[in-house]
User: What shape does this take?
Amino acid sequence: MNPLSWQKRLRPLLTPVSLLYRRILAARRAKWENEGSPAFRPVCQCFSVGNIAWGGTGKTPVVDWLLGWSEARGLRAVVLSRGYKAQPPELPLHVSPSRTPGEAGDEPLMLALEHPSAAVMVDPDRRRSGRWAEERLSPDLFVLDDGFQHVKVRRDLDIVLLRPDDLGDGWGRVIPAGAWREGPEALERADVFMIKCSPEAWESLRPACERRLAGFRRPLFSFSLRPGSLRKIGTGECRDADAFAGKPYALATGVGDPAQVWETVARFMGREPAEYIVYPDHHAYTPEDAAKLEGLGMSVICTSKDAVKLRELRLADAWALRVEAAFGPALWTEAAFPHWLDAWAKRKGLF
Assistant: This one.
């Protein structure tokens, strides 16, 4: 049976455990938010990108967008990441393009490759990596990746991502009775809400957004993932979908929201994949995986996150679809997110 089905069946038994979990988190937060706590207080502005629930909400595309926004305005941004499943040879690790996914983690390495003018730091202790970066890199801006529950670093802007399910049956259901990491009261800390949904789905989702979030009086921005071009893994050659017209292709991915990847790729290519292979999130691709993909006898398409791991395996015909966050309709503000953020940054003296 699906684990989510078991979770629903056992919810009456799990709810007391959720309440205890919420109290433990609240006590921990109160300790670190005390003025005398040893939390890291950056000398420059710090953006946090996080979510209330576990699972794929689009954090990495939003961090990627923020790095592009920073570069376009001449700001030196430093990303503070814990480096999920990474095994850095040193701590903190300043990620360079020559690092492996095993050393840096797939998402930090992907961001470092896409944004060479930014710095990506990996360290489970983000106070340490932040201080290291302040001393050596003179950042204009920190971006705290997956930072909403990270109490040890102060931030100036808390961007909180939500899933459509968070506004429905999943609302307020805390681990282990649900997917939320904290209770609804935690959303009071947010400065901005974001939700990943297509422009077509926005109108049907809007009533739930208004019902659940109006009381927080924060702006809500929708965004979707806009595909760009296909980049050949290993060479960087770029092609559009027309180059694959009339040919079958395989889709392979190991991300938090594989259904979103399938939808994005199928829409970009104009047809469904002939083969669809789903691996766990942050999957470490093996030579056996590469042999299986090569044996399909067709072009393999994956995400940029998958590509940083597949590049070491030298597939002959593998392509990464580059996507970027594209912001759509909003609530409780007249401004589109890029303009809203520009205005916020100017008020804070960032530029």
User: Anything to note?
Assistant: The first strand starts at residue 45 and ends at 51. The chain has two domains: 3-219+332-348, 227-324. The radius of gyration is 21 Å. The mean pLDDT is 93.
